[in-house]
Amino acid sequence: MDKVLVTGGAGYIGSHACKALRAAGFEPVTYDNLITGWEDAVQFGPFERGDLLDRARLDQVFATHAPVAVMHFAALSQVGESMQKPGLYWQNNVEGSRNLIEAAVDAGCRNFVFSSTCATYGDQDGVVLDEDSVQLPINAYGASKRAIEDMLRDFGAAYGLRHVIFRYFNVAGGDPDGEIGEFHRPETHLIPLMLDAIDGKRDALTIFGTDYDTPDGTCIRDYVHVCDLVDAHVLGLKWLIDGRESRVFNLGTGSGFSVREVIEHSRAVTNKAVPYTEGPRRPGDCTKLVSGSTRAEAELGWTPTRSTLDQMIADAWRWHQTGHYDK
Ligand code: UDP
User: Is the distance from the beta carbon of residue 79 to the nearest atom of ligand 1 less than 6 Å?
Assistant: First the structure.
């Protein structure tokens, strides 16, 4: 069985990717430092604990497993934190990715699937982003991901490292079987925070900014179901294994929901009130991020099947109620 090295495989998206890889006939090898990940989520293949900044450990893991490809999710990903501690993001995300990319090249592994972000586009209100949209990140998180994209292009030109880059935003939902789901330490994301507020595990949700130039004054985001998202990653992996060229794909639904709309849908799906207050804007937040996925659908044959907002909230709510969150 071909192995795929999955960095961040103990995290929310990475663990769902491992499950999808296993179902597609690959053996996912998780590489994770467990700072934000969770060992219980590593259920679908071997686990190698390690840090991206530890080049010797990376070399050892490549030598042990000889993966056919890397799927790179491990990253710090909080927009607000990235504005307060940019050095952390440049060190962990950019420097860590350089280690990983060099280790892959030195080990002769030339297929690389990278989890990037629509945050690389910055604040382009009114535009449905496509892959050729200009990338003007407004926070250090987006800037660090754009730098890694540039690095992949340079290493592609120099060493033939072929890569598929996925840019997406706001992943939600969870495994329909309930084996894994969304969790972050600390939790900063809208939907899990809201579900916690609904059942009293946390204080009321704070809406970050109600004076944006949107119909209801709150930020608009494009939410994609995690299972649809990782399906695209498996298709991207097969694209590379089939010998296709390096390519960038946006993954989105093309429709955006405001924070207030997400609250409304959550109230309807859970049939419970959402306690919330209104607060100031969070530094680094874009007004509106909506991404089409025409290219992924046309070229990869990607067909999202679970990415309605209600389905995502329902899946997240089911996972939430299992109590895994409370561990
Ligand atoms: N948000 C919010 N309150 C929170 C967390 C998030 O109002 O406690 C908003 C945030 O400003 C953004 C949207 O919800 O507009 C999604 O934020 P999240 O942190 O989930 O993802 P991001 O867009 O930062 O990747």
Answer: yes
Question: Sign of the C-alpha dihedral, residues 39, 237, 156, 246?
Answer: negative
Residue having the nearest C-alpha atom to atom 11 of ligand 1: 208
pTM of the model: 0.95
Which numeric CATH code is attached to 3-171+224-251? 3.40.50.720
Which numbered atom of ligand 1 lies nearest the CA of 79? 24
| Residues with catalytic roles | 141
The response to whether residue 246 sits with its C-beta less than 6 Å from ligand 1 reads no
Calculate the alpha carbon distances from 160 to 3, 13, 65, 152, 312 in Å: 20, 27, 21, 10, 38
Block mean pLDDT (10 aa), the chain, length 327: 98 97 98 94 98 98 98 94 96 98 98 95 79 93 98 98 95 95 88 94 95 96 97 98 97 94 97 96 88 94 95 95 70
Ligand 1 centroid–CA 283 distance in Å is 11
The Cα–Cα gap between 55 and 50 comes to 9
Burial 50-86 (b: 16+ CB within 10 A, else e): bbbeebebbeebbeebebbbbbbbbbbbbbebbbeee
What's the half-sphere exposure (Cβ side, CA atoms, 13 Å) at 98? 11
The architecture CATH gives domain 190-221+254-322: Alpha-Beta Complex (3.90)
Tokens of 18: 């491992």
Distance (angstroms) between ligand 1 centre and the Cα of 78 equals 10
Q: Is 206 in the pocket of ligand 1 (CB under 6 A)?
A: yes
- Annotated domain spans of the chain: 3-171+224-251, 190-221+254-322
> Does ligand 1 have an atom closer than 6 angstroms to the CB of 21?
no
3-state secondary structure 203-225: CCEEEECCCCCCCCCCCEECCEE
The alpha carbon of 214 and the centre of ligand 1 are apart by a number of angstroms equal to 15
Same CATH fold assignment for domains 3-171+224-251 and 190-221+254-322: no
